[in-house]
Amino acid sequence: MVPVSTYDLVVVGGGSAGVTAAVAGARMGLKVALVERYGFLGGTLTAAMVGPMQSFHAGETQVVKGLAQEVVDRLRATGDSPGHVPDPIDYCSSITPFDYEGLKRVLQEMCVEAGVDLWLHTLFLDAAVEGGTVRHIRVWQKDGVKELAARFFIDASGDGDLAAAVGVPFQVGREEDRLPQPMTMIFSVGGVNWDRVFDYFQEHPEELQHPVAIHGTIDPERLRRLPFRGFSAFPTLLEEARAAGEFTIPRQRLLVFESLRPGEAVVNTTRVQGLSSLKGRELARAEVEGRRQVWELVDFLRRRVPGFEEVYVIAVAPQIGVRESRRIQGEAQVTQEDILAARHFHDGVVYGAYPIDIHDPATAKNKTRRLPEGEYYSIPYRALVPQGTANLLVAGRCISASHEALAALRLSPFAMAMGHAAGVAAALALKDGVAAREVDADALRATLAEQGAFLPEA
Ligand SMILES: Cc1cc2nc3c(=O)[nH]c(=O)nc-3n(C[C@H](O)[C@H](O)[C@H](O)COP(=O)(O)OP(=O)(O)OC[C@H]3O[C@@H](n4cnc5c(N)ncnc54)[C@H](O)[C@@H]3O)c2cc1C
């Protein structure tokens, strides 16, 4: 006999979207289980060491609030984030640096306080579905396979594992060749001499400029004085290293953010292409290649980058970062046109302004497409509602969006806001006894607004 546990709501995935979904549902009185394969929360933000969060703002307007802002407030209270600060890369309206361990702590505290039952070290296996209604999921733990039955489910696995298991159609990759955005292995270093870095930029400002900066040029002196520094720079040094046979990574610029501690930095520059994160053997190869690239980059930093001569590695991310995998087919799909036209859907539940940011699946290039400065787009509730199901929602980077649209919507503040919306929608569906697709969008928006979310006129 497989042991069975029963809940109102089961959330699969304890990342940005899953935690806010579980907390939102539990605060509305639901008995909630959160299923997470690792022993800690935060998902890509902590397991893949992604950061800073970007962006809560559209120009001067803060467009992500609610539970996502509560996470930031709590991080500030524990000294684990300065809050929202200017983006040193000049790529988006604000960034929100945070400490990884601080985030694990805050997310765990929010879940525990809300009464969420944390099923950590628990791997989602498959699901039982009857006529579009998910009855239970099966999970694997060290002591065997177990069942979690619930009235409602949220797939916040990033990969859409639950939605795919119950037969929801999905897409992977770009239209022309089905290739998704590349994976990246992030690592942190200590021993950075920031003064030396900025002295170099003063002498070589051209190494700092990049074509997608909002304001056209970046002033090295202003950058030096920012509370949190960083750069997307050194194209010449990278090409020199490539010509010398020292650098093989398909990337044109070095992307680095300062971390919260003096002399430390996070390097987001490796790039693994042509392997699928959805296939076990290929994911393993991606991990191996990502870690190989880390050490190639460390050699490059020490040998060629001013201010990085003495760096030492503090941590390599526990797992390679996956930008894109399954995008499920929902009742609505967000497209590139919706993003660039800053479209406001009548059932918009999440707002954002981060540009379409495509790390090319096959070359060393990045492509950016912006909406007008200060404007913002919306994610409709229907993009969270998978086709053909009654009691299932998705939240986070597996929502219903085109390859291009997801290149904007995958960012962590939006994942948190989507989770918030999904958790509240689950509670409303159960209260009203309706299917996910029948949840009253006006009531959902009103409840989210009462809970502090940003909800402008639709
Ligand atoms: C390299 C890289 C750089 C990025 N840079 C930034 C950035 O600078 N700023 C920013 O804001 N965003 C950035 N992003 C995007 C952002 O980090 C993610 O898209 C976002 O955090 C995804 O949140 P999520 O909750 O949807 O998924 P995740 O955070 O991936 O959460 C999914 C959770 O589900 C769990 N899970 C998955 N499958 C199973 C299973 N079968 N059983 C049990 N548990 C499972 C995972 O362990 C994980 O905890 C970046 C992403 C990458 C990969």
How does this model look, in words?
The protein is an alpha+beta fold. It has two domains: 4-81 and 96-177 and 324-450, FAD/NAD(P)-binding domain; 187-316, no CATH class. The protein is 31% helix and 21% strand. The protein contains 13 helices and 20 strands. The protein has helices at residues 16-27, 44-47, 66-77, 100-114, 161-165, 194-203, 220-225, 235-243, 280-304, 336-340, 403-409, 412-432, 441-450; strands at 4-12, 32-35, 57-58, 61-62, 117-119, 123-130, 133-141, 144-155, 170-172, 187-190, 230-233, 254-258, 265-267, 312-316, 326-328, 348-352, 356-359, 366-369, 377-380, 392-394. Strands 1, 2, 5, 6, 7, 8 and 20 form a seven-stranded mixed beta sheet that branches. The protein has a five-stranded antiparallel beta sheet with strand order 11-12-13-10-14, covered by helices on one side. It has a two-stranded antiparallel sheet with strand order 3-4. A hairpin with a 2-residue loop joins strand 6 (123-130) and strand 7 (133-141). Helix 1 runs parallel beside helix 4 (100-114), helix 1 (16-27) runs parallel beside helix 12 (412-432) and helix 12 (412-432) packs across helix 13. The longest helix has 25 residues, at 280-304. The model has no long low-confidence stretch (mean pLDDT 97). Flavin-adenine dinucleotide is lined by residues 12-18, 35-38, 43-45, 47-48, 50-54, 123-124, 156-159, 161, 184, 268, 321-323, 396-397, 410-413, 415.
Number of domains: 2
CATH superfamily of the largest domain: FAD/NAD(P)-binding domain
Number of helices: 13
- Could you please say which CATH topology of the largest domain applies here? FAD/NAD(P)-binding domain
Number of β-strand runs: 20
CA-CA gap between termini: 50 Å
Low-confidence stretches: none
Supply the CATH class of the largest domain: Alpha Beta
Specify the helix fraction band. 25-40%
- Described by the principal axes of the CA atoms, the overall outline is globular
Query: What is the residue-mean pLDDT, rounded to a whole number?
Result: 97
Radius of gyration: 21 Å
Q: Which structural class do you get from the secondary structure elements?
A: alpha+beta
CATH architecture of the largest domain: 3-Layer(bba) Sandwich
Spell out which ligands are present. Answer: flavin-adenine dinucleotide
Strand-residue fraction? 15-25%
Characterize the main sheet. 7 strands, mixed
